[in-house]
Design brief:
2 copies of one chain form a homodimer. The first copy, chain A, is α/β, with parallel strands linked by helices. Chain A has 3 domains: 52 residues, 434 Repressor (Amino-terminal Domain); 134 residues, Response regulator (Rossmann fold, 3-Layer(aba) Sandwich), CATH 3.40.50.2300; 131 residues, 3-Layer(aba) Sandwich (Rossmann fold). Chain A contains 12 helices and 12 strands. In chain A, helix 1 packs across helix 3. The mean pLDDT of chain A is 95. Strand 2 of chain A pairs antiparallel with strand 2 of chain B, so a sheet runs across the interface. Chain A binds a DNA duplex through helix 2 and helix 4.
Chain lengths: 332, 332
DNA sequence: ATGAAAGCGCTAACAT
DNA sequence: ATGTTAGCGCTTTCAT
């Protein structure tokens, strides 16, 4: 690994080798401005021969126009965010932009620190989850002059661009669905609702909708820790131990609901006649379980894609509601 | 959004406002070199007042030492890679490094293009999956002078640092396990083995081990498309339609195995007495299914963490074998 | 069509 | 302890 210390080839060296000026090399490399075919060939030959790799750090500094897009996301364990990144990175790569990311663990203070850190890269845009941020985060972002994209939560004030759907509407639709199916003794199994504000909004709206129909939520179980299949299992087990006479359970998301589903399978609790289960997210796996999971499918990849598209075309401030889809499934 | 066009505060302006020289501001901000307490206070006050955010683009260019770490990964759908990123990003954030990423879709040509693109950011390290790369990729990487970290596959030549385990050993262990349990009519359900070379290595070694015991693989079903729960379902269904008399099936990974498991649950195929199932990865969800999935658990998060640690401490070239764990489970 | 030269905002000697 | 200055490698006027 002696090569490690070698010095990178610079544009000046390419210019020298090609016998042209630096600006000519720059023009050729970016196909910008004018130059003769012969010049281009000589430059490209030199680039090839020297193995020149342009230094984008220098380029960005000189042109004051960054093609970096910073993602400050709550988690990588929750499949939602890899899905969003997937949609976004495809579009960004096509448009010669570059994704940078950092993980907040659902901590607003950490989000603030990471946004500050990201801003130091002078990104073209900062992409965040939701519209709940600290004062400091919002202030920095507004002062930065870069585009701000908030994803997956339209229930609040957007700073610039927002792409996603309404979690309140999702919670509402879920409650209406269960009520329409005739369920009246409904419980809830969820994870930390303070940190995951979007899950909190769904739950709140879910309860309000039940209330409007004079069907109070019978019981709830909030597990410690992040959402996971295992926690869904444990949560449902504890909920049922305390309140056996439920006819339906709403989960904070599909991971949790799958845990509940497995619990029922293992215990021989018949679904949905004895107990109905309803999730959120519409994960692929929920379509393949012996009984497809009843849930709300969210446009995660599309959210990333649309967000990236708006960024690369420097679209005006706007709110894009991508909606969601209620999946009837067979568990409710 | 009129703020968008505002010009960022520079270090020079902070220096001016604080009535000190530029280098003093730089020293204070990086807590490097010496300065009086009084000076520090004045500088910090100015920073606060002006809302100064250091420009890391300029800083990196000037100091020729990048804290960027570039991840060029095959996929974000396969949970393996979000897991690796998760482990890595935690360590990188603690050490003031920054993760950048791009997705290859398991395409070596695309990997080459993305590596070239990443190198333009002059990262401290480039992190790749596996040790199979195009000539061009390897050449560029070696010529770049930056650290190279290859993950999740120790069965090959490492360019610089490699962290992970042996897929061949995993395939071998899986076969030995099934044989020890007495299974003799074994099939395989997998996805594209050309693109996912690590799955290919596991399968090859699996077959070789069976062969060493004179137990040929009875049949295999390679589904079109990426690995997924749904494809695992479909794959097993087709395999059994063609070759019903199997007593065990090895899957390319847990996603596929879960699909197979659901298929059996739905069809009332008793597990493991009628058919045994064996996966790969050790996903959390496999621990919570009514019968825990028999599989090999891989150290995905740890792989990311160790890789990041070696990068931040600029460790010497080395191979780190993190091993894997065979999970007996209840499906085989 | 091409080159010269002035930055971009910072860091790192080198002075003082 | 602090200021001055010369770059880092590129892009971008502005000449020619």
């Amino acid at each position: 690994m002696e090569l490690r210390h070698q010095v990178a080839v610079t544009l000046a060296e390419v210019a020298e080798a090609a016998g042209v000026g630096e600006s000519t090399v720059s023009r050729v490399l970016r196909s910008h401005g004018s130059f003769s075919d012969k010049t281009r060939e000589r430059v490209m030959a030199a680039v090839e021969r020297l193995g020149y790799v342009p230094n984008r750090i220098a380029g960005t500094l000189a042109s004051a126009g960054s093609r970096l897009v910073a993602f400050v996301i709550p988690s990588l364990s929750n499949i939602v965010f890899p899905d969003v990144l997937r949609g976004a990175s495809a579009v960004l790569e096509e448009n010669r932009h570059q994704a940078v990311f950092a993980v907040t663990d659902y901590d607003p203070q950490k989000e603030e620190a990471l946004v500050a850190s990201m801003l130091a890269w002078r990104p073209a845009a900062v992409v965040l989850a939701g519209c709940e941020h600290t004062e400091g985060t919002a202030k920095m972002l507004r002062a930065s002059g870069c585009r701000i994209v908030e994803l997956l939560d339209l229930d609040g004030e957007a700073l610039d661009i927002a792409v996603g759907f309404s979690n309140r509407a999702a919670g509402h639709a879920s409650a209406e669905f269960l009520l329409t199916r005739g369920y009246r003794r409904i419980g809830y199994v969820g994870h930390d609702l303070i940190r995951d504000t979007r899950a909190g909004k769904r739950f709140k709206s879910f309860c309000e909708t039940l209330g409007m129909h004079d069907v109070p939520l019978v019981d709830r179980e909030i597990v410690a820790g992040a959402s996971s299949v295992e926690n869904g299992q444990v949560g449902l087990e504890q909920l049922l131990a305390r309140t056996p006479a439920l006819d339906a359970v709403y989960f904070s998301n599909d991971d949790m609901a799958l845990g509940g589903y497995f619990h029922c399978l293992a215990r021989g609790i018949h679904i949905p006649s004895r107990l109905a289960l309803f999730g959120y997210n519409g994960l692929d796996i929920g379509r393949v379980t012996p009984q497809p999971l009843s849930t709300v499918r969210t446009p995660r990849v599309a959210t990333g894609r649309v967000a990236a598209q708006l960024i690369v075309e420097n679209a005006p401030s706007q709110i894009v509601d991508l909606g969601f889809e209620l999946i009837e499934g067979a568990t409710a």
